[in-house]
Amino acid sequence: MIIVMKKDVSQKNLDHVVDIIEKKGLQAHVSKGTEKTIVGVIGDEARLEKEIILGLDFVEKVMPIQKPYKRVGREVHPDNTIVKVKGVEFGGNDIVMIAGPCSCESEEQMFTIATALKKMGVKVFRSSAYKPRTSPYAFQGLGVKGLKIIQKVGRELDLVTETEVMDPRNVEVVAKHVDMLRVGARNTQNFDLLKEVGKVDKPVILKNGVSTTVDEWLFAAEYIMNEGNNNVILCERGIRTFEPLTRNTLNLSVIPLVKSLTHLPVIVDPCHAAGKRGPIPALSKASIAVGADGLMIEVHNDPENALSDQAQQLRIPEFEKLYAELKLVAQAVGRKLV
Ligand code: PEP
Ligand code: MN
Fold first, then answer.
1. 42 C-alpha to center of ligand 2: Å?
2. Which atom of ligand 1 is least distant from the CA of 185?
3. How many angstroms is it from 183 CA to the middle of ligand 1?
4. Ligand 1 site residues, Cβ closer than 6 angstroms
5. 94-124 pLDDT tens trace
6. How much is the pTM?
7. Which CATH architecture has domain 83-337?
8. CATH topology for 2-63?
9. Where do you find CATH 3.20.20.70 in the chain?
10. Is 148 exposed, middle or buried (0-12, 13-18, 19+ CB in 10 A)?
């Protein structure tokens, strides 16, 4: 149920409605927009009589929630959610660049790349200490040792850090070392992991799975929000289609669609979609043009000798050139790339 309050409803009256809802064992999701204040009722609505709510003179109307995702959908939260992390804002007018290597390989490699990115003005640094590799014999990541390196880089260079978490048992230790958590494409529907990251007080970047539908992806976000973590950023990273030459095909048509369905920020990772360097600049520009709120791009100082994703990580000068070009594209659509 969605309760639309009359304009300029007082906090006291708003608290009163929330109180009625909570006393029925239901949860209230309050969204104070620029135009309207809306209260979403989450739980078994049969417990709440519509007439009681309609009888309150500060309530404008009561409507059923049409979409099955109650917290993620725009219905209960018409305004964009802005996810804030250390002064960086996802989902506002800024388009946020997240850049860094595929894997955290060593302290030296991490500082080399991060220092170069910091100099260019990049604010959010990516890298992975836990790697979801197809082969169990491939580099699996440095684990906790890697987390400590990521934390050190973040602190010394004043960068926002993010990294992947694959195992619900590692959520706590990962959250202790980085500013943002990432759920990768292989774990989009790992429901235990989603619930665990939902309990953490750090933003979560949630990628689509290679075969998840939009509905499944949004429900995955719903799992996180349902545990209390509202700071979810969706990240399109390509889907598996019949076409092998585009590796995972970047699904750009999903960006405006998802942004119409949800209030959450939506960013794009063109690298894991393309699987090779060549298409990344064009796909990044296109992502900004279709409304992405951010980009995640892999950058390495020596990609040929990288321990993962050698073919798709941009060299530092290649990234620098692209970053400058993307700033102009962002300007052209009335936004600012940071
Ligand atoms: C990554 O971003 O490091 C990664 C493994 O990507 P994905 O989960 O999209 O494959
Ligand atoms: Mn990678």
1. 37
2. 8
3. 8
4. 102, 128, 132, 164, 184-185, 207, 237, 269, 272
5. 999 999 999 999 999 999 999 999 999 999 9
6. 0.93
7. Alpha-Beta Barrel (3.20)
8. Alpha-Beta Plaits (3.30.70)
9. 83-337
10. middle
